[in-house]
Amino acid sequence: MLRWIILIAVWYLVYRFLRRYLASTKLPKRKPPQEIQDEMVQDPVCKIYLPKRQALVLQDSRGQNQFFCSTQCRDKFLGKDS
Questions:
Q1: Could you give the residue ranges of the DSSP H alpha helices within 1-82?
Q2: Is 71 among the domain residues?
Q3: Dihedral of CA 49/54/58/64: which sign?
Q4: Does residue 1 fall inside a structural domain?
Q5: Distance of CA 41 to the CA centre of its chain
Q6: Rg of the chain's alpha carbons, rounded to an integer?
Q7: Residue 74: is it exposed, middle or buried by C-beta count within 10 angstroms (0-12/13-18/19+)?
Q8: Which of 39, 75, 78, 82 fits a 20 to 30 Å CA distance from 55?
Q9: 27 in a domain, yes or no?
């Protein structure tokens, strides 16, 4: 009977040691992913809004940018209808 008590005590100590050891070697917690901040721009032809990073950009002679959802809308804006 005493042998079982000692065996259980040893197993418990080994368990506690391993648990503490593994807890100290864990990887640091990851930061939650940050929300992507992207400006929404409007296509002057079809009037839809889309993220600026996905838009086609056309710079006019005054240095202002126009943003388009597709090449078809850009061509309509430029008067290149086929």
A1: 2-24, 71-78
A2: yes
A3: positive
A4: no
A5: 20
A6: 32
A7: buried
A8: 82
A9: no
